[in-house]
Request: fold
Amino acid sequence: MGVVPGCTPKRNGDNLAKGKNTVAVVTELVKPVADQMGLTLWDVRFEKEGAGWYLRLFIDKEGGVTIDDCENYSRAVDKLIDDADPIDQSYYLEVCSPGVERELVQDWHFERYLGSLVNVRLIRPVEGQRDFTGELTAYADRTATILLDEETEMQVPLNEAAFVRLYDDYDMGGLD
Reply:
């Protein structure tokens, strides 16, 4: 298996804590390290891409994260994850920023970004449309309220959304 730049290939055993999934176990392991380093653990994902598995740790901090933050955090949690041995197949460890158009997943993500513009993609179209942009005005019981225009409000249960992401209106200029 080739090595992806910036990733560390891993092979661990099957010491997953009883009754908990991989993401929950890894989150419990690595969140205290993020807190200690002044970082916010934004999200943890364990995903299959092609033939490979990826353990992705998304970190954030006020003012944004740097490549050095990602590298330092990766080094700090690498041995901790290896010693706990929560994953029973080969995987690559990636540590990165959630980005400008970060996906809102956790309840606290939605609460933090109330009043912000978001992009929403629905799993199934509503009136022939799947993609919407509007202001996140409320969030409760895993349902986001999106103000699409002055007169139209949309209730989006998260189990009906492919994603909800922050809207990035940054214009890089150049091509029209």
Observations:
- DSSP finds three helices and nine strands in the chain.
- The domain at 107-166 is CATH 2.30.30.100 (SH3 type barrels.).
